[in-house]
Write a structure and sequence with these properties.
The protein is an alpha/beta fold. The protein contains ten helices and eight strands.
Length: 287
């Protein structure tokens, strides 16, 4: 039995947390993924006081919809591999705060993007800094019993589960795993996404579900805001692969519709599209 969740950035931006959780419940989702993105407003969540944290815990308990995962995409702005010592330190401190917040809110899994450097240049040093800083993050996460998972990205540094597993050879810990994005691993021509899932199954603890347009020799691909069913992701084949492998983890629908006027329609359409394919593939979803 698998669980289907939705990321916060798919839900209407102006809604309170209680309303977001109730909306997710109404539309058939089992959990929500909280976003700590690059905006100051969401980074400030890392410094919530006890009452703010407790209020969200109350909302979770009273709605019955947990926040199982956290997307720490603020690390694009403060990358773990930065050559700037100040940013390098900020990235680690941000992760420490995220781990404590997750512990307080009952979040089991923090997803970090597989970037050594996002806006700046990539070098041998940014790779080594990423591994070094990641080791410190994973050690702190282990102390607090919170999982760190690397997402496969729209970037060649870590764009497959196989590359996550290579990093895991340098940072050896059961508290570091993979959070593959089906859209991202499908978009890169060097990947065979079915094989990547098969060979990486023992590292997968959660899966992001979105559609993408593939990278080609003439186009850079498109990794965001591709409506489900209009991209190149072979969802049915990938879901059947996961069914054969007896994957029992979570699926999280990922969209960026939070400020769009048709946000609710997109939520409904995405849910129905993915549930129909999961059902066809033989994967049972918790209701």
């Amino acid at each position: 039995m698998a669980k289907l969740g939705i990321n916060e950035k798919s839900l209407p931006f102006q809604m309170s947390w209680r309303d977001k959780l109730n909306l997710a419940k109404k539309h058939g989702f089992s959990f929500v993924e909280i976003s700590i993105d690059e905006t100051d407003e969401r980074i400030e969540r890392l410094d919530w006081n006890k009452e703010q944290r407790f209020q969200l815990v109350r909302d979770v308990y009273e709605t019955g919809i947990p926040i199982d995962t956290m997307m720490l995409s603020a690390l694009r702005k403060y990358p773990l591999g930065s050559e700037n010592p100040k940013i390098y330190a900020q990235a680690y401190n941000m992760c420490k705060k995220a781990i404590i917040l997750a512990k307080d809110l009952g979040i089991r899994n923090i997803q970090i993007a597989g970037y050594d450097e996002y806006y700046g240049s990539k070098t041998v040093l940014t790779r080594e800094n990423f591994i070094e800083n990641l080791q410190r993050v994973v050690d702190f996460a282990a102390e607090n019993q919170v999982m760190i998972s690397i997402e496969t990205m729209d970037d060649t540094f870590i764009n497959s589960i196989a590359k996550v597993k290579k990093i895991k050879k340098s940072v050896v810990s059961p508290w570091l795993q993979a959070y593959p994005d089906l859209g991202n691993i499908s978009a890169w021509p060097e990947n065979n996404p079915g094989e990547d899932l098969t060979e990486g199954l023992d590292s997968i603890i959660a899966i992001h579900v979105k559609d993408t347009l593939a990278v080609t020799s003439n186009t850079p691909g498109k990794f965001k805001n591709v409506p489900f069913g209009t991209g190149n992701v072979g969802f049915l084949g990938l879901f059947k692969t996961l069914r054969r492998l007896d994957y029992q983890g979570t699926f999280t629908i990922e969209m960026w519709s939070e400020k769009e006027s048709d946000c609710i329609n997109k939520i409904e359409n995405a849910h129905d599209f993915i549930v129909d394919l999961l059902t066809e593939s033989g994967i049972l979803i918790e209701v």
